[in-house]
Amino acid sequence: MDLSDVVATAMFTGVVLYALFGGADFGSGFWDLTAGGPRRGSRLRVLIDHSIGPVWEANHVWLIYILVFLWTAYPTVFAAVMTTLFIPMSLALLGIVLRGANFAFRKYSATLGQARLFGALFAGASLITPFFFGTAVGAIASGRVPAEGYGDVVRSWLNPTSLLGGTLAVGTSAFLAGVFLTADAARSGDHALADYLRSRTLVVGGVTGAVAIAAIAPIRHDAPTLGAGLLGRALPLIALSAAAGVLTLVLVYRRRYGWARVPAAAAGAAKRKGLAVGPTPWKRLDPMIKTQSPGARPTQQGRQAHGPEPP
Questions:
Q1: 152 conformational bin, left if phi > 0, alpha if psi -120 to 50, beta if neither
Q2: Does pLDDT of 92 surpass 60?
Q3: Helix ranges (DSSP H) in the chain
Q4: Tens-digit pLDDT profile for residues 237-284
Q5: Is the dihedral of CA 295, 297, 302, 304 positive or negative?
Q6: b/e per residue, 229-258, with b = 16+ CB within 10 A?
Q7: pLDDT band at 67, cuts 50/70/90?
C-alpha cells in the first residue's frame, strides 16, 4: 500500500461515516414528511427533534473532511468532479442550507401554518440532499466524469445508474433513520410509537432491499464495468450488505431495536465500500468508450480498459 492508497482509505472512511451518521440524520426527514397532520404526527416529530437535535449539523463535519481531503490530495479529481457535477452538487448544498434553516425556523414559528411550512421544507430538503449526492456517486462510479473535467453537465448524472444511486441513497437513509428512531422511541418508553415505526421501517427496508437487488440489471446494461465489478470483486461486500440488511429486519421484527442498529450500520458501510471496490481500477470509463465514433482512435482511457490497439 503506497501513500495514495493510505490517503484514499482515510478519505473514504469519511465517506462511510458521513453516509451513516449524515444518512440517519437526513433520513429523519422522510419520517417527518410522512408523519401525518399536526395531531397525528406531533409525537413522532417531537421524537425526531429530540433525536437529531444534538447532532443535526455536526454531521456535516464529515462532508468538510471529505472535500478537504479530495481538494488537497487529488486536486485534479476535485476539479473534474466539480466542473462536471456542479448541478447535483449545488442542489445537494442547497438542500443542506434549506434543511438547516427550516429546522431552526420551525421551532420559532409564530403560527401553526408557519410551522407546517417550515417543517415541509425541512423534510423535503432532507430528501433532496441524499438524492443528489447519490446521483453524483452514481456518475463517478459509472465513469461519467472525464479525467480532464468538463464532462456532460446533464447526462453525467441524469442516467439510470445515477438515478438509481439517488433513489437508493434516500431509501437507505430512511431505513437507517427508521431503525434509530424506533430504538429511541422504545428507550423513551413510548411503545405505541415504537410499534408504529417498527411496521413502517420493515416496509421501507424491504422495498429498499428489493430496489437494490433489482438495480443490478439496469446498472450492468448502463455501466458494464461497474456492473461486472459489483458481481465480481465487490460481490462479498454486496453479499455482506444484504445479509446485514436481512438481519436488521429480523431484529426489528423481533423488537430487538437496540441490537438492530449494529447490522443496519454495517449494511450501509458494506454497500458504500462495495461501490468503491466495484469500479476499480478507476481508469476504466465505459461511457467515454461508448461515445466515440466507430472510426475514432481509442482514447488513453479506452486503451487502459480494453488493452492496446491491434497492429
A1: beta
A2: yes
A3: 3-17, 23-33, 38-52, 60-73, 75-84, 86-107, 112-141, 160-187, 191-214, 216-222, 224-230, 235-253, 257-277, 286-290, 300-306
A4: 889 999 999 999 999 999 999 999 999 999 988 887 777 776 665 444
A5: positive
A6: bbeeebeebbebbbebbebbbebbeeeebe
A7: very high
Q: What is the pLDDT of residues 101-115, one digit of tens each?
A: 998 898 888 888 898
- Alpha-carbon Rg for the chain, nearest whole angstrom, is 21
The stretch 56-73 carries a mean pLDDT of 87
Single out the residue of 63, 71, 68 nearest to residue 22, CA to CA: 63
Lookup: cell for 81: 468532479
Question: In angstroms, rounded to a whole number, what is the distance separating the alpha carbons of residues 88 and 151?
Answer: 13
Task: Report pLDDT for 280.
Answer: 60
- Supply the pLDDT for residue 281: 54
Listed in sequence order, the residues at least 6 apart from 151 whose beta carbon sits closer than 8 Å to its beta carbon are 80, 83, 84, 144, 145
Q: Indicate whether this model's pTM tops 0.90.
A: no
